[in-house]
Structure formats: structure tokens, C-alpha cells
Amino acid sequence: MEKIQKIETLICGIIELIIALILGFMVLSMTIQVITRYFIAVQVTWVEDVSVLCIQWITGLGVPLAWFKGTHLEMDITDHLYSEKVKKALYIVLQIVAVYASIQLVRLGTYTFRLNRGFTESAVGYDESFRYVPLIVCGFLLFIAAVFKFLLTVIPIITRQGEKKL
User: Where do the structural domains in the chain lie, given as residue ranges?
Assistant: First the structure.
């Protein structure tokens, strides 16, 4: 149980660092764009494409980070209606649904990656399929987050029931 939490903390730290670096790069490139456009009258054409990629990566990494940390939006308006056992069962079902959704994200990302391979429409000239890599990464990391949350919820239930039988 502690090993899972340590791995989870390590993964969250790495994701946060990557998001911070991407965000810093995006702010720097946008600042350069503003300075060159208004003070030198030169427009840097690649900044918009890079900014879109940065936002896609921040989102693709932010979704599983929010799932790991439990900071995603939750609907708690009916929580007072359910017992703790029912809430825990619903949480377990939610993790199973998240595992399924993450698998579908990877499938969709892989499909769109293959579908767009070979197209270059951006000013930077990169392959358009690269836009879908954050979706694949998001699905993979969301899968890990949901499995970890599932295990962290189920393991204590199983071990307590095993102790009661002994």
C-alpha cells in the first residue's frame, strides 16, 4: 500500500515538473511573440502552433494528474443520502469506468494518430499526427491513476475482511 502511494507521489511529481516546464516554455515563447510583433514588427509564425501543442500537452498531463490527486470536479450534492459503504462502492465503480475510459482514450488517440500520419499543415512543419500523442499519453496515465485509486480503495477492504475471517 505504501509502495503504491510512493509510486503515485513520484509520478505526480514528474507530471507536475513536465507541466511546469511546458507552461514556462509557452509563456516565454508567447512573450517573444509579443515583443517581436509590437516592437520589431516581425511576427514569429511558429509560436501559435507551439502554443496549441503546449496546451494539448498540459491538458493531456493535467487530466491524469487531477485523477491521481483527486482534485477533479466531483458531484457531492447527494452524498448525504448514501451510507459510507455505498459511497465506497460507487467510488470503486467510478475507478472501473475510468479504466474503461482510459482504454478508449488510448484507442481513439492511436486511431487518430494513424489517420493523420503524413500530413503537415502547420507553420512549423511537423507531422499532424503528433497532435494526438497527448491523448494517448493521457489515456495511459489515466489508466495508471484509476488502477492505483482502485487498488488503494480495494486493498484495505480485502485485508480487513481477511482479518475478520481469521
Answer: 2-165
Report which of 121, 115, 155, 152 is spatially closest to residue 135, judged by C-alpha positions: 115
How far apart CA 19 and CA 98 sit, in angstroms, is 22
Residue 141's pLDDT is what?
96
Lowest-confidence region among 56-65, 113-122, 133-142:
113-122
Q: Which residue has the cell 480503495?
A: 153
Overall residue count recorded for the chain in this entry: 166
The 3-class secondary structure across the chain, one letter per residue, is CHHHHHHHHHHHHHHHHHHHHHHHHHHHHHHHHHHHHHHHCCCCCHHHHHHHHHHHHHHHHHHHHHHHHCCCCCCCCCHHHCCHHHHHHHHHHHHHHHHHHHHHHHHHHHHHHHHHCCCCCCCCCCCHHHHHHHHHHHHHHHHHHHHHHHHHHHHHHHHHHHHHHC
